[in-house]
């Protein structure tokens, strides 16, 4: 891609009427052209003017004259733009005048590199110019908008948290200490591992005392003070023992409904509850066999030792 092709991609198309349009900025007046300096570059890039016929010194002299007429109010951006465009035109004119062919000299390579840098700057110049136009358009649209200056509506103001402006350094320090304080280490309880032992006889006595006092109650009320499952099971087993002794009667009107318990026993006689659920330890049927095995092992071990001693004495 040549420098002319790059310039053609960067420069936007220009209307023919723009040549004669009046402009307060710097304009160029040469043999076949009269108009803005940017338009001159556009026409040359599109081959509407021959760059070899353009006297750059004339354009430069006119620009210097234009700057002097501005006095102290001359625009630095406009001067920079002129230098960029003038350098591009100079490079285009040098490329047209020099013969084309393979470049072998290092100086020629350096010139080509400098030309590429100039076109790169031209691309940057066009890009910044377009972006600045976009920013200007957005600023113009933003100036037509006005913020809402009314207060917040009541239903939304109540959602805002209360601002505590009365807090001092001490209160903030206390909050920071609370937030940064190490959290207590969580402990895993082992109480559920050891099953609570429940005495059926004791639970039966509790039921007897209550029923002799209230005469009739429900099973739900009877276990209201039980805080563990094992305690509920123990109280239910005691209730079954009392039923077997004909001390209580059950009544359930609807299936899965409340179980009503009514006292039918004697208020003065002592009710004996069997202790089949309160056995401390079942009969150990394995221990005697283990003891016999241990005794046999001990006998065999002693016999082996005696035989070993007798063998050692015979060898000596």
UniProtKB/TrEMBL annotation:
<protein>
    <submittedName>
        <fullName>Unannotated protein</fullName>
    </submittedName>
</protein>
<dbReference type="InterPro" id="IPR003768">
    <property type="entry name" value="ScpA"/>
</dbReference>
<dbReference type="Pfam" id="PF02616">
    <property type="entry name" value="SMC_ScpA"/>
</dbReference>
């Amino acid at each position: 891609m040549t420098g002319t092709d790059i310039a053609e991609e960067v420069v936007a198309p220009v209307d023919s009427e723009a040549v004669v349009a009046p402009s307060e900025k710097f304009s160029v007046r040469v043999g076949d052209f009269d108009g803005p300096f940017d338009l001159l570059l556009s026409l040359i890039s599109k081959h509407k003017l021959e760059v070899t016929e353009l006297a750059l010194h004339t354009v430069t002299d006119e620009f210097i004259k234009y700057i002097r007429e501005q006095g102290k109010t001359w625009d630095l951006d406009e001067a920079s733009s002129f230098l960029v465009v003038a350098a591009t035109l100079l490079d285009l004119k040098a490329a047209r005048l020099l013969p084309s062919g393979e470049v072998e000299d290092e100086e020629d390579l350096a010139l080509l590199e400098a030309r590429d840098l100039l076109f790169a700057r031209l691309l940057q110049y066009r890009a910044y110019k377009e972006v600045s136009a976009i920013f200007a358009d957005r600023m113009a649209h933003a100036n037509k908008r006005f913020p809402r200056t009314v207060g917040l509506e009541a239903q939304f103001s109540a959602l805002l948290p209360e601002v505590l402006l009365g807090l001092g350094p001490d209160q903030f320090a206390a909050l920071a200490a609370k937030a940064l304080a190490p959290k207590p280490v969580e402990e895993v309880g082992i109480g559920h591992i050891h099953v609570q032992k429940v005495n059926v006889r004791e639970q039966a006595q509790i039921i007897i005392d209550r029923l002799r006092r209230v005469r009739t109650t429900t099973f739900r009320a009877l276990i209201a003070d039980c805080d563990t499952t094992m305690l509920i099971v123990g109280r239910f087993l005691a209730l079954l023992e009392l039923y077997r002794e004909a001390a209580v009667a059950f009544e359930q009107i609807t299936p899965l409904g409340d179980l009503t318990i009514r006292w039918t026993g004697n208020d003065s006689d002592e009710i004996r509850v069997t202790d089949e659920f309160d056995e401390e330890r079942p009969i150990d049927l394995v221990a005697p066999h283990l003891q016999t095995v241990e005794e046999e092992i001990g006998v065999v071990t002693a016999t082996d030792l005696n035989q070993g001693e007798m063998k050692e004495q015979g060898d000596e």
